[in-house]
Amino acid sequence: MPKIGFFFFFFYVSFSFSQQSDFKHINFSKADNIANIIKTKRLYKLNKLTFNLTNDLETDVEKVRAIYIWICNNIANDFNLYSLNERKRKRFAKDSIKLQNWNSKFKKLLFKKLLKKKRTICTGYAYLFSEMCKTAGIESKMVNGFGRTSSVDFTKLTMPNHTWNLVKLNDKWYLCDPTWSTGISFPDEGRFKFQYNDGYFLTEPKLFFQNHFPLESQFSLLGGKTPSFIDFTASPLLYGGAFTVLKEHLSPLKMNHIIKKNDAFTFKYLLKKEIDLSKIKFVIVSGANEYTVKPKINFKNNLLNLEYIFKSRGFYDLHLYIENELIATYTFKVIK
Q: Phi and psi of 333, rounded to 5°?
């Protein structure tokens, strides 16, 4: 069980459903176009870059959008740098002096790569977003915590592994993760592919919490209803595709389940956009066997209910796909 330190200080947060839909009346095309046009080889003139991105935009949310899109289109994820840091942190985990020395050395390496090569890891993304927002006169904070992916083993994780942002717009705080919006790393091939995911921009807090656990509970923006770390690690595993389709993951609340064969099991989701219902499927894996099934579908008022019946005993991994996007994974032990 990871040791989680909590630091308390006075911090004003609005808990009133901060999300991208608050700005559905805003057309982001101008901000996106500016972000797509402006190019720079290095980041040594960050003030000038921020000015060029935001000067012709009227609202703070458009300025934030331009900064966010520019970062996600221009800063590559450096998986080798991430792996190096992980190895060193594990190596020095029991030696506070060596760990502190490494953190100091790594910080210099991190900023050198960010400024000169436009390559970084989550800390660099969050720092860059926060600094550019502040330059534009917009309050932003870096948030440290635990990011949940399919490769994270929480039984072995002893320190926070991810960093993201809060940004203040119209006196309300919003969540975003420029790292996970940027693209996909292929560690075995040593390459990174830019592939923007808009789902992590001003995300609804309940959905964001599905794979982001902040060290400071108030930064979840869930008020006094922030689930425990144990509940967080037990929740369903959601992928990037979920954030492009779902507004909220309603049920099940846990990833692992024990059910009886021939009992119907229901999955519930609140969608944020129209989808092709014919392109919903479950991919089920049991041992060496893999097969695709169509669940029973009920859809009304953006509420999607899916139902499936396991007819045989055994252990199953169930993967939900919507329009060829991997959404979530659940596990089932089916008993007699």
A: -110, 115
**Confidence label for 14 from pLDDT (cuts 50, 70 and 90):** very low
Distance CA 121, CA 163 (A): 9
Strands (DSSP E) found in 52-138 = 76-77, 119-120
At residue 175, φ and ψ (nearest 5 deg) are -105, 140
Whether cis (ω within 30° of 0) applies to the bond prior to 252 is yes
Helical segments of the chain, H only: 29-37, 46-54, 60-74, 79-91, 96-112, 122-135, 178-182, 205-208, 229-234, 240-245
Which of 18, 16, 4, 14 minimizes the C-alpha distance to 217? 4
pTM: 0.88
Residue ranges of E strands in 200-276: 201-203, 212-214, 237-238, 246-251, 256-260, 264-271
Q: Given the structure tokens 């060193």, which residue do they identify?
A: 88
Tally Cβ neighbours within 10 Å of residue 137.
10
Shortest CA distance to 221 belongs to which of 273, 170, 168, 179? 168
Whole-angstrom Cα distance, residue 196 to residue 178?
9
Work out whether the CA dihedral 305, 309, 314, 318 comes out positive or negative: negative
Q: What is the DSSP letter of 200?
A: G
Provide the residue type at 164 as one letter. W
Distance CA(181)–CA(199), nearest Å, equals: 7
Q: Are 173 and 14 in contact (CB under 8 A)?
A: yes
Residue 48's identity, in one-letter code, is: K
For the record, the structure tokens of 222 come out as 């869930």
Mapped onto helix, strand or coil, the DSSP state of residue 146 is strand
Q: Which two tokens stand for residue 85?
A: 């840091």
Cα separation of the two ends of the chain? 33
> Mind listing the pLDDT tens digit for each residue in 238-259?
999 999 999 999 999 999 999 9
pLDDT for 18: 60
DSSP symbol at 154: T
